[in-house]
Hints:
The structure holds 2 protein chains of 2 kinds.
Chain A: H1 5-26, E1 32-37, E2 58-61, E3 63-64, E4 79-86, E5 90-98, E6 115-121, E7 138-144, H2 145-152, H3 157-160, H4 190-193, E8 207-212, E9 219-220, E10 229-235, E11 238-246, E12 263-270, E13 282-283, E14 287-291, H5 316-338
Parallel strand pairs in A: 1-4, 1-14
Antiparallel strand pairs in A: 2-4, 3-13, 4-5, 5-11, 6-7, 6-12, 7-8, 8-9, 10-11, 12-13, 12-14
Helix pairs in contact in A: 1-5
Chain B: E1 3-6, E2 11-14, E3 24-31, H1 40-49, E4 62-66, H2 75-90, E5 96-97, E6 109-110, E7 170-174, H3 183-187, E8 193-195, E9 202-204, H4 214-218, E10 224-227, E11 232-235, H5 240-243, H6 258-261, E12 268-274, H7 288-295, E13 300-301, E14 312-315, H8 322-329, H9 333-341, H10 345-351, E15 363-367, E16 371-377, E17 380-385, E18 388-392, E19 398-403
Parallel strand pairs in B: 3-14
Antiparallel strand pairs in B: 1-2, 3-12, 4-7, 5-6, 8-9, 10-11, 13-14, 15-18, 16-17, 18-19
Bound molecules: iron/sulfur cluster (3 copies).
One iron/sulfur cluster binds next to helix 3 of chain B.
Amino acid sequence: xxxxxxxxxxxxxxxxxxxxxxxxxxxxxxxxxxxxxxxxxxxxxxxxxxxxxxxxxxxxxxxxxxxxxxxxxxxxxxxxxxxxxxxxxxxxxxxxxxxxxxxxxxxxxxxxxxxxxxxxxxxxxxxxxxxxxxxxxxxxxxxxxxxxxxxxxxxxxxxxxxxxxxxxxxxxxxxxxxxxxxxxxxxxxxxxxxxxxxxxxxxxxxxxxxxxxxxxxxxxxxxxxxxxxxxxxxxxxxxxxxxxxxxxxxxxxxxxxxxxxxxxxxxxxxxxxxxxxxxxxxxxxxxxxxxxxxxxxxxxxxxxxxxxxxxxxxxxxxxxxxxxxxxxxxxxxxxxxxxxxxx
Amino acid sequence: xxxxxxxxxxxxxxxxxxxxxxxxxxxxxxxxxxxxxxxxxxxxxxxxxxxxxxxxxxxxxxxxxxxxxxxxxxxxxxxxxxxxxxxxxxxxxxxxxxxxxxxxxxxxxxxxxxxxxxxxxxxxxxxxxxxxxxxxxxxxxxxxxxxxxxxxxxxxxxxxxxxxxxxxxxxxxxxxxxxxxxxxxxxxxxxxxxxxxxxxxxxxxxxxxxxxxxxxxxxxxxxxxxxxxxxxxxxxxxxxxxxxxxxxxxxxxxxxxxxxxxxxxxxxxxxxxxxxxxxxxxxxxxxxxxxxxxxxxxxxxxxxxxxxxxxxxxxxxxxxxxxxxxxxxxxxxxxxxxxxxxxxxxxxxxxxxxxxxxxxxxxxxxxxxxxxxxxxxxxxxxxxxxxxxxxxxxxxxxxxxxxxxxxxxxxxxxxxxxx
Lengths: 343, 419
Ligand code: SF4
Ligand code: SF4
Ligand code: SF4
């Protein structure tokens, strides 16, 4: 390395450090979502309920998933606005994000659903933010636009393929509508027979409750253990989706929440119109979720409690050391630049 | 990405998983020359596996008329175009180096990029997702030939003659290739696709699949298919219960797959070949598939340059233009056509075994017979012997016995229409 390149290297290191210093506080790390305490039932099916206005919305930035292939640099969703409510029994989260198109079907090979997910670690530490890691499982709640739509009316084959004509399906039950006829023997609906939750003809909730411990390990919890509720509407280019669940759960793959603790939580969103599914998505970092103290039912929203130190944030002394380091590198770089060139 | 050895392209290539091989491999030889385009194979598969809701456009076996037909539409043109573009972007001229042919590189060395090597840096495999509409017409362009260049209405006044017809088409019968290095498996982010150790059959775990369709995107042959009704993908299962010998009809020995066993054109020979630890086929000169692929070398892989090492082999059609065949089956085409046109005594005997028993044949023997015919083929004398070929099943029992000359009975002239 000659004397000319040395200062450049110093400056690059310095720039990188500066960028690191600047973006860390601006990234989702260090953000805290406070679930405001209310009394009575939570508005789990009402995105316009005035109770949501009592909460402080937090914009959680999302970035393209670039850790495991397929990478997805073109991820569409840039941020999710999150609000939370709790009543000591249940938690409800309202997620809002922009999406120009509503994609609530996945019947044709080339259609993908819009969806959004909330992720909690199942261990005290924070496992890897993308799907957890071995020994660091995460509980994922995955809301799907097509499951939501199916609660009103399941998309039919005739809707997906207007010119479809089939004489008959062997082994299907007699039915006026051939295309909706039930099968007594699910052998012919292979994935359903194999117990794949996705293949079940009806889902009680638009949210799938899952567990994962690293890339490729995502697993649906058993049908009987599906206990996350959800509700989503799309209007004027915005999806608004509510997740709700009891704070407690007896299942080992479920997050158990107690209002006096702070939890890490992460988010991901998929834009179906952009072909997004699996790792082709936008994800957040871990952010904090805390529970507001019980408030009088009629009182206006309590001023936000000073946010608890984010578990993932660096302590002050670490910032000071980083700052001093940066300064030293800057001085070193300048010094090297000013030195006369002896070659 | 680790490197794996792909003998069809004569070199190591990039693949996301380390090299590992099954003990035996499901494989088949399809003789394009004999296919009559009857679609019995297509119907047999449909009637066995894909007759239920959500499988309407699913044809695990399909027969398309080349050069225009394709299912899903334009699968081959699109895959080849993607590869071409990748080569251009990388400044690579894909070529086969025939100077380097050898035991582990029977077709020479392919110097272009495979689909895993040409993949976008964000992806594992280079591919595309066919649209919904592209699965509509499994037999579009059926029997459509190229136009005769010289005559009015595209018709030839002279008929057609070998070695190359001027107006031509041929059938291409396709099932999943149960590839040695499946692109579908490589692309699945969930590892929901697996290759069985006992027979190399590639399956999609119906419980683990989450319908991401990365396999549909990645398989260049487009042999994984999405079933929206169950929200997951499905594919040819190689009729694995039959291969396992679970069908009572064969008394516990492996049986040919449905589409193979029904073929009235007798174009298909299906079996299991022994695989060595290094992925090569264990030398077995008396195994009909080993003989056809490795000794006679009349049966070739479809688009070996894709790099998946497909396990369905084709005897190319004698009458089609060689450049078209070469881009399809690689540089082994000329030799394969030549050998098939004037088959050796042994090859002619082995060709009799096609579609004569439902049991998979693991070994053949030939009993020599007399010379019955001598004709000129391509200017050379060709002799035909009435040899007898005997096929043996997995337990070494005789399964079938045939002579080259079919038994003939001539009815007396006074009984022309007797039944
Ligand atoms: S042909 Fe396609 S689906 Fe079949 S194993 Fe190969 S890559 Fe997979
Ligand atoms: S091997 Fe069996 S499953 Fe595969 S295409 Fe043939 S009949 Fe269908
Ligand atoms: S059954 Fe045989 S002859 Fe008929 S289309 Fe299929 S491969 Fe060709």
